[in-house]
Amino acid sequence: MSVPFSGTFTRSGGVLSAIAKQIKLLNFRAVNRVTVKFDPFHENANNTRDFLHAISTTKVSQTNPSCLVKTDIVCNRDKPLITFQFIPSIQEATKIKTIKVEADNLSLLELLKVTNEQITARAPKEDPVSTLKTKSEKKGAVGKRR
């Protein structure tokens, strides 16, 4: 008697592909300001700096051009902290003004996942753009002339 196969046929892309996938999912339409505060001499500041680099890309900044990304570099051995401030319409709907993420023991992938779960999920849905139809498309293929 054989054991049935359980698993995948291919290997995963690894951590880098998971990070790239999470960066593609980022959406800052619900956010008014992002403040990243860290001490460069803290032992876990590298992941916060990588997160700051990831949210500074053009694709992420194009999701909300009016979103401000502010960096506070301090020298007091504080833990890294990321603060998201919502736009007023989201504040009224969710009754939440800000979300603070302590990034002390989180990896870059975990920071991106938390951001997608908490921020991207609250982003307002985009209205579908109506497409323009020509006269022949409106009539359809029923009335063909010869």
Describe the structure.
The protein has 146 residues and is an alpha+beta fold. 34% of the residues lie in helices and 17% in strands. The protein is built from six helices and four strands, in the order αβααββαβαα. It has helices spanning 15-25, 45-55, 58-61, 88-94, 108-118, 135-139; strands spanning 31-38, 68-73, 81-86, 98-102. The longest helix has 11 residues, at 15-25. It starts with 14 loop residues before the first helix and ends in a 7-residue tail after the last helix. The model has no long low-confidence stretch (mean pLDDT 88).
Helix and strand arrangement:
Elements: H1 15-25, E1 31-38, H2 45-55, H3 58-61, E2 68-73, E3 81-86, H4 88-94, E4 98-102, H5 108-118, H6 135-139
Parallel strand pairs: 1-2
Antiparallel strand pairs: 1-3, 3-4
Helix pairs in contact: 1-5
